[in-house]
Amino acid sequence: AQSVTQPDIHITVSEGASLELRCNYSYGATPYLFWYVQSPGQGLQLLLKYFSGDTLVQGIKGFEAEFKRSQSSFNLRKPSVHWSDAAEYFCAVGQKKSSGDKLTFGTGTRLAVRP
Amino acid sequence: DAGVTQSPTHLIKTRGQQVTLRCSPKSGHDTVSWYQQALGQGPQFIFQYYEEEERQRGNFPDRFSGHQYPNYSSELNVNALLLGDSALYLCASSFRTDPLLAPQHFGDGTRLSIL
Questions:
Q1: How close B26 gets to chain A, by Cα (Å)?
Q2: Which one of A106, A115, B61, B63 is least enclosed by Cβ atoms within 10 Å?
């Protein structure tokens, strides 16, 4: 069965500092990988996705992620964090089945930004 | 272009009662998935509907059931509510052609509290 691990529950960075959020997945085939962001009281917004091709993917809001098959990782990065980036971030792996597709989410990393 | 809309936004019920949550997918989307997000956790997949049929189901008891209408809107029904059913319930819509390549759009959710 597929699974996702986000080892960091909370991360605090200073505004302008770089950011890396870790994500490790377990999945037998080539994974579909996603990063979503959730602001308080809101649903999830897709930041970026990977399913094939270039292992470095660019997303919205200046985020990028790198797929490393050898490490089963899909870490999210941003070179300079803004105060508005404070939110909860979820990594997810997608399972493709003939009966339908589903996402399995990690438990999330809550990001706080120091002014 | 309206996104995914869910109603109601908040709901309070008591143990043993039944509840119905509603979701209207993003315009042009025909597949609806439901997720349960407990406090401090990532979303967990409940089930997915396409062509008015349940296509895939996560690890949830039969107390959780759903329906999809010809206009693609969907309902989530939960019977015999338990305290542990307190959560944010998220609806996500996508194109059936490839929900993982054209990823899901999420609503803001319904916050269900069980007393």
A1: 14
A2: A115
Q: Report which of B61, B22, B105, B84 is spatially closest to residue A103, judged by C-alpha positions.
A: B105
Cα B88 from chain centre: 10
Query: Of A4, A43, A33, which Cα lies nearest the Cα of A96?
Result: A33
Put simply, the answer to whether B104 touches A103 (Cβ < 8 Å) is yes
pLDDT per position in chain B (115 positions), as tens? 679 999 999 999 999 999 999 999 999 899 999 999 999 899 999 999 999 999 889 999 999 999 999 999 999 999 999 999 999 999 999 887 676 766 789 999 999 999 9
Tell me how far apart the alpha carbons of residues B112 and B18 are, in angstroms, rounded to a whole number. 11
CA separation, residue A108 to residues A39, B1, B89 (Å) = 12, 29, 16
Residues A94, A103: Cα–Cα separation, whole Å:
4
Residues of A whose CB is below 8 A from B92 = 44
